[in-house]
Structures are given as structure tokens and as C-alpha cells.
């Protein structure tokens, strides 16, 4: 079985959380951070299981960088 190291970006939205895997452009949601992350993992695994190899290769962007920065405003 193959595995990939992927990223989960989570953002609070209304009463829950939205989770995004930027490497594959797959998203999910949940009521808590843990639930959103688990739902994202399930969505990614279903995508990897069901999508044709060509679609996975087309979508997969392995070089994702997360960086924080400070912006000034008036």
C-alpha cells in the first residue's frame, strides 16, 4: 500500500471548520478540528481510491509551502 504525506489547512467557518488538502485540492468540513481533519482524510482516501491514475497525477501538487507573514494596514 502506498502512502502520501499531505497537508490539512483548517479554517473556522460559521459553527464549524472547513479543511482543505492543497496538494490534491480536496476539501471537507466538520463541527470540530478533529472531525474536519478526519473527514478530509476520508475524502482524500476516497479520491485516491476512485480517481483514475491520470487524474491523481494531474491534481497532485507536491510542493506546497505554508508560511505566515505580517501585513501592515491603517
Brief synopsis:
This protein has 74 residues and is of the alpha+beta class. The protein contains 2 helices and 3 strands, in the order βββαα.
Describe this structure in words.
The chain has 74 residues and is an alpha+beta fold. It has a domain at 9-59. The protein has two helices and three strands, in the order E-E-E-H-H. It has a three-stranded antiparallel β-sheet, covered by helices on one side. The protein starts with 8 loop residues before the first strand and ends in a 15-residue tail after the last helix.
Any chance you could write out the topology, listing elements then pairs?
Blueprint: E1 9-13, E2 16-21, E3 26-30, H1 33-50, H2 53-59
Antiparallel strand pairs: 1-2, 2-3
Radius of gyration over C-alpha positions, nearest whole angstrom? 14 Å
- In total, how many beta strands? 3
Low-confidence stretches: none
Estimate what percentage of residues fall within beta strands: 15-25%
State the helical fraction. Answer: 25-40%
What's the oligomerization state?
single chain
Distance from N terminus to C terminus (CA atoms, Å) equals: 53 Å
Computed structural class: alpha+beta
Mind summarizing the main beta sheet? Answer: 3 strands, antiparallel
Q: Indicate the mean pLDDT.
A: 96
What sequence of helices (H) and strands (E) makes up the elements?
A: EEEHH
Choose one word for the global shape.
Answer: globular
* Number of helical stretches of at least 4 residues: 2
**Spatial order of the strands in the main sheet?**
1-2-3
